[in-house]
Amino acid sequence: MQLFSTPNKSVLHTLFEIYTLLWILSHGQSKIPDAHVTCIYSEDCILPCTFPPSTEEVVFQWYKQGTLIYSFLEDEDESVNSNISVFTDEVSHGNASLLLEDSSIKNRGRYKCVVNTTKAVQESDVIVKVEAPISGIAIGVSPTEHVQCSSHGVYPAPLLKWSTEPSFAPTSLQAVTRISADSNDLYSIESTLKKMSTNSTLTYICSITSKYSSQSWRASLLQTEMTVNYGQHLVIPCMAPKNLKNHTLTWTFISMNTHTDILTYYSQTHRIKNHWDGQAELDLNKALMGDGSLYLNSLGSKHSGIYICTFTGSQAKHIVQTLVKISASKAVSQTGNGGSKLWVLAIIVAALLLLCVIFYIYRKFKVGKSKHSWQDHHQDTEMQAMHEGHSVEELPAENKPLAQHSKGDS
Q1: How many CB atoms lie within 10 A of CB 233?
Q2: Same fold across 3-131 and 229-334
Q3: How far is 273 from 275, CA to CA, in rounded Å?
């Protein structure tokens, strides 16, 4: 289809108004029920206006809020805006629809199409709404340990609601919601919810719905914590919400404010992109059914941190944040294992040396005592033999007793 546009012509405009007035006075006028059109922000939008086809000359006008914005007369047109045009080659077929290119918030309002033919003057009104749909939703935890939910670039301002699983009374959920508009009149909505300290396994659910109820997005968040021993294997559970189809599963790791991608799984194609191959893995059969649990092998101290599981589907997002702590006492014993072995070995060697010394001293003492006893016994035996084999007379002179003198000698 060919689009036709020409520069503004005040003379043509005046003639067209006079021509239209004469047709209105001389012919009957018909009114068509209002049409309702919702234009999508930044996309082209067609405002319908049809009439019975005519081989004769056709003239028509478009008004917005009572102000003329487009005129068509004798195959020439006059437009107040460069992004407004008609399908000129369709006019003879009864199509006077208006094309709004690159719709903006300013395009909303009431439009009127007035068509003049040789048979009648026809009017039709079009009520135009402009909507910037919800394109995404974000949920997370702030540094102050509040749950945050937000969406940006939305028109009109959407509605936001909090809930939990297990459910709590809405009045017990303390949330603060702020709405602001940018230079293009698009809205951002942000809400902060105070966490319920009574339940650490609570799932927080944020729902954002467009004002025209054409969309409803849902985001949920669950926070858990696990403590495991150094060097062990670990399974971090993560289950998708019910009825979530054609989802994408991503696992990320946060440590020391550094984000690292672990893996991404696409359920529609059954493909997986693993950045931690050999260290982390999924059960693909379970993942297809919505069980995205992560299997980790041989945990070390570097694996302490936050593991984030994110299921993303059509207008839905589910996040599970798991804080994993590696047992410090076990880590120390493992990291100091070599030193401990050396100490044990040194103690054993020292004990053996001490036993050897004691045994040596004991043996030496025992042998020395036996030798001394044998020498004493041998000496006593010799002395006894000497005394038994010799008389007193046989003793040396110096050993003999002095002879007693006789009385005669005295």
Answers
A1: 10
A2: yes
A3: 7
| CA separation for the pair 103, 208 (Å, rounded) | 24
What is the C-alpha to C-alpha distance for residues 199 and 219, in angstroms, rounded to an integer?
Answer: 19
| Residue ranges of domains in the chain | 3-131, 132-222, 229-334
Crossing angle of helices 337-389/328-335, nearest 10°?
50
How high is the pLDDT of residue 140? 94
**Bridge partners of residue 208, in order along the sequence:** 160, 217
Give CA separation, 216 vs 138, 151, 178, 243, 314, in Å: 14, 12, 19, 15, 10
Which fold would CATH assign to domain 132-222? Immunoglobulin-like (2.60.40)
**Taking Cα atoms as reference points, which of 188, 217, 216, 212 lies closest to residue 40?**
212
Which DSSP string do the residues of 342-390 spell out, in sequence order? HHHHHHHHHHHHHHHHHHHHHHHHHHHHHHHHHHHHHHHHHHHHHHHH-
Which residues, other chains included, contact 369 with Cβ-Cβ below 8 Å and sequence gap of 6+? none
Q: Which of the two residues, 225 and 351, has the higher pLDDT score?
A: 225
186-240 pLDDT tens trace: 999 999 999 887 667 899 999 999 988 779 999 999 999 998 888 888 999 999 9
Q: Which two tokens stand for residue 51?
A: 């009439």
C-alpha to C-alpha distances, 48 to 23, 32, 111, 118, 395, nearest whole angstrom: 22, 11, 10, 21, 163
Q: What does pTM read for this prediction? A: 0.69
Give CATH for domain 229-334: 2.60.40.10
Q: What is the distance between the alpha carbons of residues 187 and 131, in angstroms, rounded to a whole number?
A: 11
What does the block give as tokens for 98? 């208006």
CA distance 222 to 392: 118
Average pLDDT along the chain: 80
Pick the CATH number of 3-131 from 2.30.30.30, 2.60.40.10, 2.40.128.20, 3.40.50.10210: 2.60.40.10
Q: Cα separation of 295 and 280, whole Å?
A: 5
Using DSSP's 3-state secondary structure scheme, residue 330 falls into: helix
